[in-house]
Task: inverse folding
């Protein structure tokens, strides 16, 4: 979060994707959720880089799942949003909402100059 307390848009999206996945939030499921909801391709590198940054900030934590045969005995890394992450989402939502108050976007220019 910057000086205003607002998360970056991708950080916000990743935290929300983790919340949508609940106890089953791991890298691939988070990426799938982001891609589905944003209707765009999201790279695994961007997801993991952002998760690392969110963990450093104290907004998410990793937990190790049980090893599985399908992963050749390796455990899956799951992510949980911590209370500080919930607070950051709340601040971000409130500030963004305040910024949008009274804004009416001009009609899009079909010629692409606007």
Result:
């Amino acid at each position: 979060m910057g000086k205003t307390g607002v998360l970056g848009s991708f950080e916000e999206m990743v935290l929300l994707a983790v919340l949508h996945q609940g106890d089953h939030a791991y890298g691939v499921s988070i990426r799938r959720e982001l891609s589905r909801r944003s209707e765009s391709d999201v790279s695994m590198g961007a997801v993991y880089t952002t998760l690392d940054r969110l963990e450093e900030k104290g907004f998410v934590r990793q937990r190790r799942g049980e090893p599985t045969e399908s992963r050749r005995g390796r455990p899956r890394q799951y992510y949980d949003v911590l209370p500080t992450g919930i607070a950051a989402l709340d601040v971000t939502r409130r500030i963004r909402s305040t910024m949008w108050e009274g804004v009416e976007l001009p009609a899009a220019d079909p010629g692409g100059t606007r």
